[in-house]
Amino acid sequence: MPKQTFFNLPHEKKQTLIRSAEAEFSRVPLYQASISNIVKEAGIPRGSFYQYFQDKEDAFFFLLDDLSRKRQEVFTNLLKKYDGDLFAALEEFFQIVITEVENLDFMRNTFLNMTYRIEDSFLKMFSGRQNEEQFREVSSLIDKRKLNLANDEELHHVMKILKSVVVHNFAAKFARNLTDEEAINNFTVEMKLLKKGLYYTTEM
């Protein structure tokens, strides 16, 4: 989390620093990123960076958390659009994010160097107990009558499974250089399999 001095900056200076950090994390992954490049791009002394952030990880996760908030807004709007249909909302959500050009390089570097913390931060709305507030907001919009669930505990597990599928498909898009169409098709197939269920039975 940035220090209070960052939030006290004038809007334009704050945006300049954000854009400079975004440019560096879009150029290379977090572990290769250079604070020197960020401050050079922003036109500030190196010491000033530490007045605003603890380290480069602090700056990176601030950007990722901000992106996550925007993603949650998109997803909640889609849940409203589809009257709580979780799978319909997820399919369009994936299409929107995967075809977004603005954050493409940042996304590529993020997903090709995935850690548990990055995964959890990127999709907080799916993370249940770790991010209870975001999860409750999303959960309240899901039409649970469409899902074969016994209780809210099972919804936690379903969301964990879906998060894994979303993250895997984002990572596969960049790791295998898939076209948007290929990535969307793979994701759609997996969503349909989950929606249909995997276990065949003749029992009535």
UniProtKB/TrEMBL annotation:
Domain (HTH tetR-type) ranges: 11-71
Entry annotated with the keyword Transcription: yes
Swiss-Prot/TrEMBL keywords: DNA-binding, Transcription, Transcription regulation
DNA-binding region range list: 34-53
GO terms assigned for molecular function: DNA binding
Pfam families to which the protein is assigned, alphabetical: TetR_C_19 (PF17924), TetR_N (PF00440)
Protein name: TetR family transcriptional regulator
Organism whose genome encodes this protein: Lentibacillus amyloliquefaciens
Taxonomy of the source species: Bacteria, Bacillati, Bacillota, Bacilli, Bacillales
